[in-house]
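ok so heres the complex, two chains, lmk if somethin looks off
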Amino acid sequence: MTEKETERKKETVGSLEWLNRYEEELRDMRHELHRYPELAMQEQRTSQYIVQKLKEFEIPCRMTGETGVIAGLTAGEDLPVFVVRAEMDALAIEEKTGLPFCSAYPGRMHACGHDANTAVLLCLAHVLSRNREKLRYNVRFIFEPAEETGEGAQFMLDHGALENPCPAGILIFHFANQETRAMEIQKSISTAAIGGLRVEIKGKASHFFQYEEGIDAMYAASRLVVAVREINDTFLGEHPFVLAFGCMQAGAGRNIVSDHAVLEGSLRTFSKKDFQGILAVLEKRIKEIEADTGAEIHLEVTGEIPPFVNDHALVEKGMPIGRKLFGDKCYLGEKPFLAADNAALYAEIVPGMRVVFLAGKEGEQAYPVHNPRFDIDEAVMLDAVKFLFAFLTKDGE
Amino acid sequence: MTEKETERKKETVGSLEWLNRYEEELRDMRHELHRYPELAMQEQRTSQYIVQKLKEFEIPCRMTGETGVIAGLTAGEDLPVFVVRAEMDALAIEEKTGLPFCSAYPGRMHACGHDANTAVLLCLAHVLSRNREKLRYNVRFIFEPAEETGEGAQFMLDHGALENPCPAGILIFHFANQETRAMEIQKSISTAAIGGLRVEIKGKASHFFQYEEGIDAMYAASRLVVAVREINDTFLGEHPFVLAFGCMQAGAGRNIVSDHAVLEGSLRTFSKKDFQGILAVLEKRIKEIEADTGAEIHLEVTGEIPPFVNDHALVEKGMPIGRKLFGDKCYLGEKPFLAADNAALYAEIVPGMRVVFLAGKEGEQAYPVHNPRFDIDEAVMLDAVKFLFAFLTKDGE
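and the predicted structre for the whole thing:
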């Protein structure tokens, strides 16, 4: 039998095992990407690698800015477009996995699985390009930079990622490792709304021997940190939320009233209503603290991202495919994550679905994402390719 | 008349105007010292200048460590020793006075008058060396490094500054500028007890989407800052005091529970009893916050300095001399300063008196000490020399 004939044979029995032949290529691509992690908006080497691979696969693509890549696979003029997105950026973390393909760059690491995401999307593009006749959609592949900083999705949208034509939907996916080989699709809300919070507080310096002449910016900042904890304990929202500050820099010396303080934090909610409601309470408390202390407090909400809400029809379509691949290890999730993904900006424009592939390594301790020892069971990457392949082709029907 | 005869003539009329001839030398020395400010324990050039001048004046001296200098003027074997101290160190401040003799070193400035103090002490040594027959004491001159960091006095004590023999007393002085030509001696307590406070707080990091897994060190730090304000408002001490933190560094990112916070501040009181009492309350509040938050809080009290209490007999002797020189502009102060001077360590061993010379410039805005525009009316330096001269000689009787 020719290769094509073998593939068709397997297909007829409803199996996707013929895709296993791509496993080595998939692993190799992940290793290469893992070895050269690049921070947000600096993904030059990564994007060049992607472009080179797409060229090998004979899939047309274009750069967006210096590091984003959009590729398109056309199966038929009349087919709707469907988008699959992978992130490309790494984190400023010193890798401690000890993997043979571990980061070649000190202080940088793919600790959020974006290496796997990019490898999966490249592999998917390869497989689909060789099986165009099965496609139900023309597929657009978005390789997104700067997801970690919350900039990437807007950047890609600004470069027309969802235009000409507007797609029928978008799939995004994520690797986690709290459980071995499984997958999960949230029934509705998948990730949280998030806004970065930056608070600048202006006081007035004075030597401590004239303490009362000063306005203590650090004291005002501390009052705000305490107030924020109270808001967490008392605000009655629709859903759980987290309002918190992660860092403070205040003052200049041990004997001088601090004239300046900066707080940085974030607000995570599962609905825009909660987001706005909590922000309003925060602003009220800020006004009170200003009145009490005399300090000037300026709150800036940065990089606001809405919640990612899975589209009902896409979930209806995705769950049976997941069940076929993972059996009862494909979960319909009820409890969303307080993590955020800027891909929610895409899902505000077109129907979207976020899939989580659980890829804990059998018998090994799982370190969570953003940990210097984060790793996944690479075998699940192939399951991800299979799921996405099935979702986009006749094989998923 | 010979010079000696002229001096005696003026002396007989109870005037110290003959000292005016030293004014130019005094200014020149201050300008030279002001031009080359050196930070604590780095006063190499300054100490070399002092040693060179003392050599010119034929006054024996010895170095203590690399930058301290102790000189001795002997007038008679049976006379008691009296000490006068001047500080030598400058501050890490970029000078903005625009003076013709302003700092030659970027980012360093004599903004606490130690240039004037050293010049006055050198001039005093010169004058006394030429008028030994008037001396009531053998005089020891202490040129102290590192006053600003609170290290200098202990350093000089470790080098035997008050030994062989133990002196009868010590005079220290300070230039301020909130008023034109005047002086002040505090009736009893002159400067505050002070202790540096360093608080290290250990929490547990966790991404905000698992906020409850973390222990928020910054929250514990903020609670402590708020608690400290309450202690200031509620503690019933013998005297006024200031307990405050001046700076905080906490956390690593806007999305991560801070696992580490550092607070630096100080406690200033006018009595050891208040100092210990307030510290005990602070420690109690720390225990409460530890119990509430789960954070580990470590308090370190550094560089503790006692209050400088003026000796009654020295004040009784000093006030009439001050009145003779400054008239009703010589004040007997009732309200001490919450500033501290590590010279209090000397005054715990021997009777001490601290004199403040007020040297605001007529018709000019006065910028306080530690301000990049701090300056003084140099004419008052000569008044300081006169006061000290009179105090140590028959002329003060």
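quick notes: Residues 3-191+307-396 of chain B form a domain with the Aminopeptidase fold (CATH 3.40.630.10). thats all i got rn
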